[in-house]
Design brief:
heterodimer; A: alpha+beta; Phosphorylase Kinase, domain 1; Aminoglycoside 3'-phosphotransferase, Chain: A, domain 2; 11 helices; about 15% strand; globular; B: mainly alpha; elongated
Chain lengths: ~350, ~150
């Protein structure tokens, strides 16, 4: 999928198969995109009847090579559902090669969003009023995702679990991880203790993006914000998205939540109707761990497989750096939980 | 055997060349990220070569000390006593990097048992918390901060 020599022709065949009216379309400007850790991505342009349209191709890497495993069909079904029944700001999904028979790997074609990433948009910005407005807008965008009607979601995202069952399941990931390690990991044991002491009040489960971080926010030319990379979307606790943001922002600033957490919390509560006891810096800290612990588990499994010599590759060697970032952020989150005990001010 | 320059110095030299000479000359963004990842991994290897053994030995000693102090205030039937016994039996008698790693893993298990045992003992829990913090800080020092290649 990363070979610009062969992909335009393959895409042309695929498009003609999917839509007979595109039989004469030509694919130009095929460019692999860097930056994704788990999916292969490329941009390309379709020339057809004198018009040009740009798209993104998202495909699976070869088996065993992706950082995290996800299902392109699930992503396709979700994006199609969001298009028709949600205000969630997502790109439109156009075509899907489920088996990879034409494109070489299961892949979907989505609209290219004209604009730039929020990382670029805020690069070098230090004006408090600009960053504050961005914090508000971020709260609005993610609140819109969380407001998606659960009935409109595709079948694989419909669930009847209660909040307690769901959170117990997430906690169980941490417990199982700790119990299964050869030689216990004291950080995981410490997190178990602190999360057990600071279980937050329940809130309704919602659609969550699952990988809510600044590189996945696109600022359109009309200044609308959209979210890309929906591969880890699920029904979960909405606070997981905010916790994920804080984790990722440790490596990719600016942290629009952490720079003024009380402002973000107030705006998000205003948009969602959640209470202050349910949504505050301490509950965000709780879900900084719980919202991302499955990713930690999956990456740790890769590191262990690499250590055994079962897999190879530069990304495998680099994974300990990513895990270290997560561990540093987890510890800081746990300390924020305990700080909230001693001063109610953080709420 | 030539022992100078140290392994850490040699590794850092290669890492620096990758980062400052090779990476800027690479146009393809995917390949550039790959080169920068190589440099970052070598940097972690250099820090480990310089400090890993010393840090492991220090941490093992601190964990033993806190766990033994905590055990004196625990009831005889506390699982911490059994964990301490298992730790002392399990400490490898051999020397060398593999033995140090095994001892470090054993000490980690002991630290987890101590965290379990200290949940209602705020003073000891605070000491254990500092040990966890020290471990996390050293892990961060190994990777040289929180920046990730291709993400900032």
């Amino acid at each position: 999928m990363l070979d610009p020599q062969v992909m335009p022709e393959r895409l042309e065949r695929f498009l003609a198969r999917e839509d007979a009216s595109l039989a004469a379309a030509r694919v130009v400007d095929y460019n692999p995109l860097a930056g994704g850790y788990s999916r292969l991505m490329a941009s390309f342009t379709i020339e057809h009847k004198g018009e040009r349209s740009r798209y993104v191709l998202r495909g699976d890497p070869p088996p065993g090579q992706g950082l995290l495993v996800s299902d392109r069909r699930d992503e396709w079904n979700l994006l199609r559902a969001l298009e028709s029944a949600s205000n969630a700001p997502a790109p439109r999904a156009r075509w899907f090669d489920a088996e990879g028979t034409e494109l070489g790997t299961p892949a979907l074609v989505i609209d290219w969003l004209e604009g730039r990433s929020l990382v670029e948009s805020l690069h070098g910005v230090s004006d408090d009023s600009v960053l504050g407005a961005a914090t508000d807008k971020l709260a609005d965008v993610i609140a819109a995702v969380h407001a998606t009607d659960p009935q409109a979601l595709p079948a694989h995202l419909r669930s009847s679990v209660t909040w307690e069952q769901y959170v117990d399941g997430r906690v169980a990931i941490l417990e199982t991880l700790d119990d299964s390690l050869a030689g216990s990991d004291p950080l995981l044991r410490y997190l178990r203790v602190q999360l057990g002491r600071h279980r937050p009040p329940p809130v309704p489960l919602t659609l969550i993006h699952g990988d809510f971080q600044i590189p996945n926010v696109i600022v359109g030319t009309d200044e609308t914000w959209s979210l890309v990379d929906w591969e880890r979307a699920r029904v979960g606790d909405p606070r997981e998205d905010i916790g994920t943001w804080r984790l990722a922002a440790a490596a990719t600033p600016p942290d629009l939540v952490g720079r003024d957490e009380l402002r973000f919390c107030a705006r998000y509560r205003e948009r969602t109707g959640l209470s202050e006891s349910a949504f505050n810096p301490a509950t965000i800290a709780f879900f900084t761990v719980l919202g991302t612990i499955d990713g930690y588990r999956d990456m740790l499994a890769k590191v262990e497989a690499y250590g055994r010599g079962d897999i190879d590759g530069m990304m495998s060697a680099y994974l300990p750096n990513i895990l270290t970032l997560m561990r540093t952020t987890y510890y800081a989150a746990a300390r924020r939980l305990t700080a909230a005990d001693s001063n109610g001010a953080s709420r | 055997m030539i022992i100078d320059p140290s392994p850490g110095t040699l590794i850092r030299t290669v890492s620096k060349e990758l980062r400052t000479t090779l990476a800027p000359a690479v146009v393809d963004p995917g390949l550039k990220s790959l080169v920068l990842m190589m440099s970052a991994v070598l940097e972690t290897a250099a820090v480990r070569a310089d400090h890993e053994t010393t840090w492991m030995v220090e941490e093992i000693h601190e964990i033993e000390q806190v766990a033994r102090d905590l055990a004196t205030s625990c009831a005889p039937e506390s699982p911490l006593h059994a964990s301490l016994d298992a730790y002392e039996v399990g400490i490898p008698s051999a020397v060398g990097a593999a033995a140090e790693r095994a001892a470090y893993a054993q000490a980690g298990t002991l630290l987890s048992a101590a965290i379990d045992a200290a949940q209602n003992d705020s003073d000891h829990f605070a000491r254990l918390e500092r040990l966890v913090q020290e471990r996390v800080e050293r892990e961060a020092a190994v990777v040289g901060g929180v920046a990730l290649v291709g993400r900032s």
